[in-house]
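User: Sequence for FANCG protein below. Tokens please.
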Amino acid sequence: GLPAALPSLPLELTVLYNSLLFTVGASDSAIKREAEGIRQGLLRVLEACGACGQDLGTEELWEKVLQEVTMEELQAPLHRLGALQAAWWLAAGRLGSVAGLFQLLSTAEEPGRTHCSEGQNKLLSVIKAWQVPPEGPSLPLLQSAKDLKEILCTAAAFLQGLQELEAGNFPTALSLLQEAAGGFCSKKILAQIYTCLGCCAQRMGKPQTALQHLRRALQVDFQCLPALSHVAAVYHKLGETDAELQALTLLYEALGKSPPAAASSSSYFLMRTELLVHSPALTSLLRHQHPSEVKYLLAQLCLQDGRVADAVEHYLDFLSLLQEGLQQQVPLDGSSALPRMPEVFLEAASALEQAGRHQDAITVCEEVISRTTDLVPRVLRVEGRLEQPECSSPGAELGLLSQKKESLRCLAWRAAAYLHQGWAWAKLGESKEAVTQFSRCLGDLLRVQLHGTGVKPTENLQPEVEVLQKIRLLSLIGRGTQFLELGRHKEALLDFQYSLQVSPGDPAAASYLVQALWKLNRKQEAAAQWQKFSQSSPGEAGQQQGQGRPLPLYLVSCLEQTMFPHSELLARSIQDYLGAAAQDTSS
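Assistant: Structure tokens for FANCG protein:
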């Protein structure tokens, strides 16, 4: 409450500097609030000089103070306070304000001098050009201005590197992040910087360089687990499955341990780099995966790579986590690696089937069926592009589209569950039960009604419709194979004919059709169909198999089971028949 007096201002500003540092050191959140103490200190300086600045913003206030206050004794305290102001602005992402302030501070020291040559980063140049004021003998500082300058340089380089990384300017980002890595920071922050360098190198198409940076991050601080996540992602891109599995296994084990209370190498500093770097890009790059997510990635990777026993173990571990409140462990913002739960169950069923645990697969599928039954409408009308439903507003149309997509997905999950059960019963030798499940699958798919003659579904619904068509194809072939097992060859023939209507030229459906005709003793037709199929262009069969979008992982094993197993034997029989027929004709 005392009036401002010039003789006491240096001491007053030094006390304010120490006080603000202590406040930041006592509470990390203090840096997120406006530094009102700095503003009041500047107003006190102006008051002592017979001026005022109540109506000025903080930037204008600094400009006024540095231009009008020329007392030599006040320069050092004001410069130190200016460095603190810069820290607050860096934490708020106001990089332009920081550059302007240091330009003012340097201009006050050496008017007319420019501190940024062409090709240099302006912000880093003006911070580095700032002359640190000498410490006075009157009152010790809680943190020297020299250390504060180093921290500001590191934070400025790190923040700008993140901005450039997010903008896709990778060479500039790499340069700034390397500058930050050589700066003044704790091991924790250094590991984060190396992680960002690794991500930058990966996006530049330099996986080996990325791995070097990420390994460096883990060497500096093994608790920087996001670096391990990115290592696994790099190996995934490289197709190095063993290395990816090893990285994910280490990550899962590390996530299960309580992290040690690692002391920071710069913990004695009140103002630290980590307090100044707040960026959505950094939060995204350093997102910690939950153990359940990593367990799922392990299961998925093993299933994709054909490591069935390991896949089953991981999927069962994951499913057990559901009973421990998985929904409370995984973020709901779309950043999780987890797919929808029915898909996870279906993938688990696929793994169990391939491991020969058919009853367990049937049980898991039953869970999917029971959970989706109430979500599947009796009839689902899918409009073509020429018959869009009239909606009162774009919002209503978007809502209807979203609802239809969800209904189609639920239908696909339940139909796929029946499909898996059909194949599981077939493997158990229960052909009648298999036919029942395949028929239930096909019955479900009849709920979808495509409207618009000769018109495909809207592009927004095309992925879901393609999955349903693939399930229809696999189920028709599956039921046809079981009809063959039961000796019901005419019904098998019909299913294979329908299969070729769903997917013309499909090699499995075509081969089974030939076999059904052969078993019905319609050998001439069988031979004609076989010749037609054999004469198709070499790439056409593969094109039919791989047409459209990638198949969901939970359907891959079903696709493999539809592959015709007797190609060579059937081809030999038909060739013998054609040879005999040719001899009869010539004679």
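Residues 1-107+123-130 form one domain.
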